Amino acid sequence: MNEFTITKTEIGVDRWPFTVDEVVILVDEILAVYAKIGKRLYNLNGIARKGKPLSKIWLDDPGILGAKIPIGFIFKMCREKNLYADDSEIKNFGVF
After folding, report:
1. Which domain holds residue 66?
2. Of 21, 11, 1, which Cα lies nearest the Cα of 74?
3. Residue 21 belongs to a domain
């Protein structure tokens, strides 16, 4: 698995979507994306199945009733860090 760490300080308090201040983002060979906190994995996309539901750590968006803080920036960071072979791989799996 490919991985990188993101922090609340790095992303910004207003955009931070998690209940903890730091997570490790993991991308596996089938493009499943996970957030790792300690020894626990949380599923970040529809392909991810090895972890717990994201809802356990995903914060509500205080500006939109019933919505969660967006996590799309995480997938953008994965692409920017070249954790995917190419865009066709993403499209074939329907990840984004």
Report:
1. 2-89
2. 11
3. yes
